Structures are given as C-alpha cells and as structure tokens.
Amino acid sequence: MSEKVATRQHVVKDGDRACDAYSALIDQVGRLADVVEAIGNGIARPTGQSLARWQVLAEVEHEAAPVGAIACRLGHTRQAVQRVADLLVEDELACYRPNPAHQRAKLLEVTPTGRAALHRMQAAYTQLALRTTEGLDPERLNLARETLGELQRRLESELP
Known about the structure:
Blueprint: H1 3-14, H2 17-44, H3 51-59, E1 65-66, H4 67-74, H5 78-90, E2 94-99, E3 102-110, H6 112-133, H7 138-156
Antiparallel strand pairs: 1-3, 2-3
Helix pairs in contact: 2-3, 3-5, 4-5
C-alpha cells in the first residue's frame, strides 16, 4: 500500500468528522478535475485545440502577456506553457511581439484566427454551463467555490 493511501486511510480511521469530510472532498475534487479536463478537451477538439491550448489562448484574449506570467496565472511551469505557446504560434493562432518591459521575454498575443477558435470554445462552454447549472442554487455554488478557495489557501501555506 502506498504511503499516501495509508496516510489517507489513517485520517479516515481517525474518526474526526472534519477529517473524514476533508478526505471525501479531496477525493471528489480529484474526480471532478478528471471530468473537467475530459470535457474541456472535448469542447476544444472540434476547433483542433486542446484544453491546454484553450487555457493559454484565454489568458491572452484581452491583453498580450509573457509566457512566464501566463504560466504563473495558470499554475503551470513556464516550460509547459512555452511549449503550448510555441505550438499556438506555429499554427498561427497566436504570435509573439516585442515586450517593451523586457527584451528577451516576448509577449504572446492572440491572432484573429486564434480569437475565432477561442470564441467557438467559449460558446460551447457557455452552453455546457447553462445545461449543468440548471436548477442549482447560485448561492450554493458560490459557497462551494469559497470553501475550495479557502482549502486551496490553506494547502498552499503547507507547500515547502
């Protein structure tokens, strides 16, 4: 048994209701993340994109930005975002332009072709959001978001 599973099982066996609820929530968030990734890739596929490419395009939809800043906002490594950005440029969905604030860190900017693909993905996402939130209480969704945000902040404080 892996150390991670053993630790989680120990927490669950501990009997603390908050720990039990926390463990169940973390498991559910992991499963949700998998579904969100699959759905995002499914929405992006008809435009010839992936979820990763969609996320990078969305980050520069309104304002060009250096790859490092995009990576920071997305919580990904600069190298991973650089690979995606280079592919977007190669496919003419984005372009690099000079950055007046930094000679070497060029700005990534969405092209009209990239903007059209992005808008198609966003329209499909809006339809999905309308279908999946029908009948849900917006206050409960906001409470879930706030709770997840608080857990994220607490977990980030535990990072080495």
